[in-house]
Amino acid sequence: MTHPTRRSERRGAVRRSWTADDAVVDGWGAELFGWAVVGIGAATVIGHLIPDVLPGPAGSATVQALVWIALGIPVLLGLRRSRPRDLLAIRTIDVATGLLLGILLRLADGAIEGIGGVSAAWPALITTDGGIPGEFWGRAAAGTLVTPIVEETLFRGVVLVSLVLLLRPVAGSSAAAVAAIALSTTLFVVAHALSAPQSGADLLTLALLGLVAGILTMTTSRLAPAVVTHLVFNATGFALLAVGTLLA
Fold first, then answer.
1. In angstroms, rounded to a whole number, what is the distance separating the alpha carbons of residues 50 and 43?
2. Number of helices and strands in the chain (H, E)
3. Quick count: other Cβ atoms within 10 Å of Cβ 101?
4. Where are the alpha helices (DSSP H) in 153-248?
5. CA–CA separation, 185 vs 193, rounded Å?
6. CA-to-CA distance for 245 and 248, rounded, in angstroms?
7. How far apart, in whole angstroms, are the C-alpha atoms of residue 240 and residue 247?
8. pTM for the model
9. Among 177, 184, 16, 37, which residue's Cα sits nearest to residue 84?
10. Along the 248 residues of the chain, how does pLDDT read in single tens digits?
C-alpha cells in the first residue's frame, strides 16, 4: 500500500527542465559535443567535394541531403541516449515569438546590409528570361522547412545543451549559459562561412540569428522558438528573392 504522504509528495513534485542547476541529461556532454563537431566538419567537406564530382541540380540536391545527414547523426545519437526535458516541447507562445523575431531579424538583415550609407540591393536570381527557375521552389521549401530544424536541433540542441551541461559544474549556471550561447553561435557562423562564401554583413546577420536562437533556447528551455524564428527568417529571405527576381 502506498503511504498517503508519499503519494501527495509525488503529486506536488516540481517538474524540472534540463536548464535546472541540478539537471542531469544522460549521454549529453563532451563526447556528444565531439560528435557534433565531427558532423559539422563532415558537412563542410561534403559541401566542397560533391559539387566537383556531381555538378548541376542533381549535385546540389545530393549535397543538401548529405549535409542534413551529417548534421542530423549527432542529433539522433543524442536523442537515442536521452531527451533533455522540455527541449522538444512546443507552446503557442513559441510560434508567436518566432514569427515576430524572424521578421525583425530579416529587417535587421536589411539594415546591416545598408551599413555605410549604401542602400541594400534587392535580392534577385540570375536568370535568362527574368522568371523564377523551377528548382528554386524545391530549394526554398527545403531551406525553409528542413534546414532550420536540422540546424537548430544541432547547434541549439546538441551543441548548446552539451556545452551547458559540460561547463555548469565548473563555471556555474550563468557563466555556462553565456559561454554555451557564444560558442554555439561561433560554430554556427564558422560552419556557414566554411560552407559558402559570406560577406561581412552575412556573417554579422548569422551571428545575430545564432545569438537570438541561443538566448531563446536558454530562457525557454525549448527549441521551438529558435526553430520558428529561423524558419521565418529563411522563408522571408526566399520570398524577397522571388519578388526581387520577378521585379528585376
1. 11
2. 10, 0
3. 23
4. 160-171, 173-195, 200-220, 224-247
5. 12
6. 5
7. 10
8. 0.89
9. 16
10. 555 554 444 454 456 789 987 788 999 999 999 999 999 999 999 988 877 677 777 778 888 999 999 999 999 999 999 999 999 999 999 999 999 999 999 999 988 887 755 566 667 666 656 678 878 888 899 999 999 999 999 999 999 999 999 999 999 999 999 999 999 999 999 999 998 888 899 999 999 999 999 999 999 999 999 999 999 999 999 999 888 887 76
Gyration radius of the chain over CA positions: 20
**What is the phi/psi pair of residue 17, to 5°?**
-85, 180
For the record, the C-alpha cell of 166 comes out as: 559540460
Cell triple for 203: 556573417
Rounded Cα–Cα distance for residues 68 and 87 (Å) = 20
- CA–CA separation, 241 vs 247, rounded Å? 10
Q: State the cell numbers at 82.
A: 536521452
3-state helix, strand, coil in the chain (%, to 5): 75, 0, 25
